[in-house]
Amino acid sequence: MTKFVTMDTSRDKFHDECGVFGFYNNDDFDIAAITHDALYGLQHRGQISAGMTVNDGGSFTTVKELGMISEVFTPQVMKKIPNGRASIGHVRYTASQSLDRAANQPLVLRYMKGSLAIASNGVISNFAEIRKELERGGSIFQSNSNAELMAYVIATNRCVTDSIEQAVLKSMNEMKGSYSTVICAPESLIAFRDIHGFRPLCLGKLKNSYIIASESCAIDTVGGEFVRDIEPGEMIVINDEGIKRYHQNNKSDVTSLCIFEFVYIARPDSEIDGVSVFTARLKAGELLYKEYPLDADMVCGVPDSGLIAAEGYSKASGLPLGMGFMKNKFITKNVGTGMEKKKRLMQTKLRALKSNVSGKRIIVIDDSIVRGMTSKHIVKLLRDAGAKEVHVLISSPPFIDECYFGTDIHDRSTLIANNMTVEEIREEICADSLGYLSIESLHKSVEGTSVSLCDGCFTSKYKAEVPTTFFVDKYANKIRNK
Ligand code: SF4
Questions:
Q1: Over 90: is that where the pLDDT of 261 sits?
Q2: What is the distance between the alpha carbons of residues 414 and 395, in angstroms, rounded to a whole number?
Q3: Residue scoring higher pLDDT (30 or 95)
Q4: Which residue in the list 18, 217, 454, 457 is annotated as catalytic?
Q5: Which is the closest atom of ligand 1 to the Cα of 259?
Q6: Among 403, 408, 463, 471, which is best to mutate for testing ligand 1, by the most ligand atoms less than 8 A from CB?
Q7: Has residue 65 got a pLDDT over 80?
Q8: φ and ψ at residue 234, rounded to 5 degrees
Q9: What is the mean pLDDT of residues 318-327?
Q10: Which end of the chain is less enclosed by CB atoms within 10 A, N or C?
Q11: What's 253's DSSP letter?
C-alpha cells in the first residue's frame, strides 16, 4: 500500500536528521519488541520513516517504511519479525528527500564478505568527493543518503582489510563530518561516533545485553541502565566474545558536540556527554532572567522545547509560571502544499489558552527563531486571546549561519537574524519586546560537558572543516543538471 507522508513544517525549526539504536541480545529478550520500544524513545529525532533490521544467525530481516513508528510497526508486522542475536533501528527526519523510500534505514548491503546493515545520524561533509570517486570505480547508488555512501565505503574497505573492525576504522579516517552510526555485521554489532562527536551516541546495558542509542532516554525506555557516552572517534564492537573498544588513528584536538542538542533537538530526560538536557534548559531560562529581568503577570513556554526554559525563568524571577498554550499532540501531518498548508497546520496544532492569558502581561519563551513565522503566529495567538502585552524571550542566540553537521538549515539567506536586527525582528513578529540568550550564557547553561561544543550556526565559527562542495541535495542537483 502506498503511504503518502508530509512532514510537519508548522514550526520553522532546525531539525535533526535521525536517531539510531542497536541491541546485542545476550539474554532471551524479544529483540523486535525492545527495538520497537526504544525507537519510540527516539521518535522526536525523526518522523519521516522508521525501520529495524534483526540479525538471526547471519540472516537479516529488515522492516522499514515511511511513517511514524506506530504506522510502520503494526502488530501484524511485529509478529513476522524473528527473534535474533542483534538488531539495529532507525528513525529518520530529512527536509529534502522526505518521500524517497530508498533513503529509509537501516540500509542492508550484500557484498562479497556477507551482509551489512547500517543506520546513521549525521552528514558526511566530503560526501560529494567520496561519491564521485566511487562512481568513477563503477558504483551505482540508489539514493543520496549518507548511510548508503557509508555502507559502500565500509564494504569497499572490507575487501582490502582483514576484518570488519579494520574496515570501519579505515572508513572513519576517510569520512569527514558528523556521524553517529550503528552497524549489524554477521557476527557483531558495531557502533561509532565521528571524531568531533557532533551527534550524541551512548552505551547501555539491560541485564547481560548491550544497548547503543542516540540518546540515553531510549535506554531508559527499555528499562536499561546507562553505561557511558561513546567518545568522539571511538568504535565499539560487541560480539559473542564481549565488548571491545577501538579509537580511530587520526586524532582531533577539537571535539564539537552540537550545542543545539541541548536547546531543542534532544529529549529533556536525556543526558549527553555528562550534562542533563533538562538541567541545561532550566539554566538557560534562569540566565535569560539575568539578561532580561522583565516584569509581567505570567511566564509561559512554547510547547514543548520552551517549557523548561520558562520554568527556569519563573524560578529565577519569582513570576508565576502558567500554561499559555494547548498543543494538539495528535496532529503530526497535514495535507496540501506550500504556505497555506503551513498556516493551517500552525492554526490547528497550537491554540492559546484564552482563560489563562486574557488581560495579562505575558512573557513567552521559545527555544529559537529560524524564519520568524512561528514566533509571529505565537504572538498573534496570545494577542487574539486577550494578552495585554507579549514579551518574547529566546533561550538561544540568533541563528546567523548554516549548519553543515546534521541539521537541515542549509541556506543562511532564509534565517531571519541574518537579514534583520533584533529590533526589526521584534517589529516583524509584533512583540512588545524581544530578547535572545547570549552565546556566553548558552555555553554557561551546558557547563560540564566532557567534550567541547559546536556553536557554528550562532557564531559562524566552526570547529571542523566546512565543506566546499556539500549537500546531498546540491550533489543531486548537479547530477540532474549534467
Ligand atoms: S552548526 Fe549549529 S546546529 Fe549545526 S552542529 Fe553546530 S551548533 Fe549544531
A1: yes
A2: 20
A3: 30
A4: 18
A5: 7
A6: 403
A7: yes
A8: -100, 145
A9: 96
A10: N
A11: S
Q: Which residues line ligand 1 (CB under 6 A)?
A: 14, 198, 258-260, 403, 405, 407, 454-457
- The preferred substitution site among 367, 399, 454 for testing ligand 1, maximizing ligand atoms within 8 Å of CB, is 454
Task: Classify domain 18-256 at the CATH class level.
Answer: alpha beta
Pick the CATH number of 275-459 from 3.10.20.600, 3.40.50.2020, 3.40.630.30, 3.40.190.10: 3.40.50.2020
Q: Which residue in the block uniquely carries the three cell numbers 562512481?
A: 135
User: From the CB of residue 2, how many other CB atoms can be counted at a distance below 10 Å?
Assistant: 5
Ligand 1 centroid to residue 79 C-alpha, Å? 40
Q: What is the grid cell recorded at 144?
A: 543520496
Pinpoint the residues of the chain covered by CATH 3.40.50.2020: 275-459
Domain with CATH 3.60.20.10 in the chain: 18-256
Mean of per-residue pLDDT scores for the chain = 90
Kindly give the distance from the C-alpha atom of residue 457 to the centroid of ligand 1, in angstroms, as a whole number: 5
Is the pLDDT reported for residue 5 higher than 50? no
pLDDT, tens only, 331-378: 665 555 555 556 666 667 889 999 999 999 999 999 999 999 999 999
pLDDT band, very low/low/confident/very high, at 15 (cuts 50, 70, 90): low
Residue of the nearest CA to atom 5 in ligand 1? 258
- Is-contact 47 331, C-beta < 8 A? no
- Cα 69–chain centre separation: 16
Outline where 26-68 has alpha helix (H): 31-40
**Rounded to whole angstroms, what are the CA distances from 264 to 259, 270, 277, 295, 396?**
9, 12, 9, 26, 9
Question: What is the per-residue pLDDT for 172?
Answer: 96
**Cα–Cα distance, 163 to 212 (Å, whole number):** 21
